[in-house]
Amino acid sequence: MKTMIVTGGAGFIGSNFIIYMLNKYNEYKIINLDKLTYAGNLENLRSVQDNENYLFVQGDICDSELVDSLFQKHDISYVINFAAESHVDRSITDPEIFVKTNVLGTSNLLNIAKKYWEKNGEFKEGVKYLQVSTDEVYGSLGETGYFMETTPLDPHSPYSASKTGGDLIVKAYADTYKMPVNITRCSNNYGPYQFTEKLIPLIINNALNKKHLPVYGDGKNIRDWLYVEDHCSAIDVVLHKGNPGEVYNVGGHNERENIYIVKTIIGYLGENVDSSINDTLIKYVEDRKGHDRRYGIDPEKIKRELGWYPATSFEIGIKKTIKWYLDNKNWMENVTSGDYQNYYSSMYEKI
Ligand code: NAD
Ligand code: DAU
Fold this sequence. Notes:
The chain is α/β, with parallel strands linked by helices and 351 residues long. It has a domain at 2-190 and 226-252 and 291-311 and 340-347: Rossmann fold (3-Layer(aba) Sandwich). It contains twelve helices and twelve strands. It has helices at 12-24, 64-73, 88-93, 96-117, 158-177, 199-208, 228-241, 258-272, 300-306, 314-327, 329-336, 339-347, and strands at 2-7, 28-34, 54-58, 76-81, 128-134, 181-186, 188-190, 213-216, 222-227, 247-250, 255-257, 282-285. Strand 5 (128-134), helix 5 and strand 6 (181-186) form a beta-alpha-beta unit. Helix 6 runs parallel beside helix 8 (258-272). The longest helix is centred in the first third of the chain and has 22 residues, at 96-117. It is globular and about 65 Å long. The model has no long low-confidence stretch (mean pLDDT 96). Residues 86-88, 134-136, 187-188, 198-199, 202, 214-216, 221, 223, 258, 288, 295 line the site of 2'deoxy-thymidine-5'-diphospho-alpha-D-glucose.
């Protein structure tokens, strides 16, 4: 039995990952360390909360005493760091917390992991720190080309700058101490349990409530979409087979303009739920400051070296996702109550 700390496991991708791992393996004990910010939701983990291989600990990755005590009490083999402030728009209005969690939190985790793993002089076999990062560290693409692992880092938003800071600290631990680490850089995820501030769940939620569908700028910014379960399988593969110190880009060549995403959701809901959901709900709004134009991942390295490939096409994934939100309206109502309303009305007061 090996024990892993999964940080940020009550968020969107982290909760999907914990469910994926507990369903797939019996030989891992998973400690979910999560601060439960506005984005953390234990409801996501209801299906595994009684699993004897799962333990939830509420706490901050910046809290060195707490992280130290977890390493003291448990023989930790893996740390998978999902914990982050993850929303670009929030980073534009409130950048400080992004630096705290995404840079200092990463540094704290690494420092304590190193201390315990080095106790016997060397890192043990089967020990790893995996940093879950993002394609946004590479900046923005023009009309052609893709992000490769060798693409220079060129972040623009406070969010992507803080993720880049985290990545560089991870790299420093690999270069300096030969710490066994990997960094994965994934494109935009979508699927169950994504908080409704992000494009896809926001559009689904607004459309169902007949609210305007805010499209930033001209709607032609491009994101490269990956179904969340495919991201989980990529992390699983990198955890087990990734070569020490390596970075792996994760994506499935699913580039779409934002307006295409919005119209796809309208099309599905209009046809299957309520014919009054149509394009008249679309509202073009002021552009995001410093809005990156295009992201596109070249996933050849992880495919070639580790044999990973995405299993879900965008066409199937988006239908599964919309259906999940329709089947889980209570989940959506819960996350959109309280503080979310304040956030939403301050973001969109111009609408
Ligand atoms: P999320 O915002 O849904 O969840 C983040 C989780 O981290 C929440 O449960 C929150 O409570 C927790 N958290 C925040 N600060 C913490 C702290 N200081 N200590 C402990 N826990 C804390 O984020 P997500 O979309 O699931 O993203 C997870 C990771 O994947 C992030 O590192 C993000 O940068 C990265 N990523 C996300 C995407 C995407 O499309 N969502 C794509 C690529 C990479
Ligand atoms: O690329 C990976 C990144 O994807 C992750 O690292 C981030 O954590 C994650 O939040 C996501 O960042 P984006 O900024 O790309 O995602 P978001 O859902 O916020 O926006 C997607 C696109 O849609 C972006 O071009 C902005 C646009 N948008 C977004 C919202 C919320 C709109 O047009 N209207 C909206 O209301």
